[in-house]
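quick one: tryptophanyl-5'AMP bound model?
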Amino acid sequence: MKRIFSGMQPTHQLHLGNYLGALKNWVDLQNKTANFEHIYCVVDMHAITVPQDTTLLAKATREIAAAYIAAGIDPKKAIIFPQSAVGDLHAELMWYLATMTQIGKLNRMTQFKDKAGKNAEKAGLGLYAYPVLMAADILLYNATHVPVGEDQKQHVELTRDVASTFNHRFDREFFNIPEPVIMGDATRVMSLRDGTQKMSKSAESDMSRINLTDDADTIADKIKRAKTDPNPLPETVEGLEGRPEAANLITIYAALSGQTKAQVVAEFAGKQFSEFKPKLSELTVTKIAPMTATMRDLMKDTAEIDRILASGADRARAIATPILGEVKDLIGFWKKP
Ligand code: TYM
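yep, here:
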């Protein structure tokens, strides 16, 4: 059985990087791999590694679920659930895996270094142990494939490592060694203000990202003011080298239009950004607006989303319970006779 597992944190708004690097690929996978099982989690337990507004967390969780559905994830085909609704099992497996994770490996995680910054001594244990919880998320369902953006690759590699350690320790091919699935051109969408920085939820300036909830005027304004260089667009894809902002905008255009970068470069060869940017805005609005509208509609009826999340949590628990049971047997815990 092939099983896909992935997730997003309910922190702030989802942006174009989340959509092109992950969510769009989940939808493509769902439509291409009907014989796979698809599990998409809203990872609220990861979100609390930094303090969250208690009055907004549940709403943010529903919003992420609404975004999944609005983008095209079908709750009849896929399991959509909040991590904390199966939190007992995720946290329990995390502990078992933590006993098999080397600190040296955690020390190499670039996301921790980025998030903790210079103040690593004051960072919480949860932030440090975050990749172990992510490994538990994936292995609790014995997933085979994990579609993510480039920035999560290192965490999936750690998961593979922990799965191998577990299998080796108990001398059984128990866990699948999950494959990171990093698809398409837009695996790392960059900031609109600086083509060398990732588009991210935590970046200070809202002008650096396009949120899935931005309206048409906001999108047009952000693209109009996006940083560029003074040269016209190149004649070849190679001509994008050393031009991170141009490369990013062309990549976004290619990913949204379903074309290759070479096709987009051919279409706009020698043109000025002033000609390209309005076309990019138009395309972005065309692709994002229907999704935003559906998200808003879904959020009007939270009872329906709650029903989807509750049923998803039951289905997720039904898959996870026997897997965790076997893990405990392998470890050798006492069991009621
Ligand atoms: P999160 O919530 O930061 O991001 C969700 C997904 O969006 C991708 N992404 C991007 N892709 C391209 N360009 C960007 N600028 C960009 N920014 C974000 C991320 O790679 C991710 O796929 N640790 C994960 C959540 C998680 C998870 C898991 C994922 C927890 N457990 C188990 C997979 C499996 C995270 O923080 O993603």
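The chain is about 55% helix and 5% strand.
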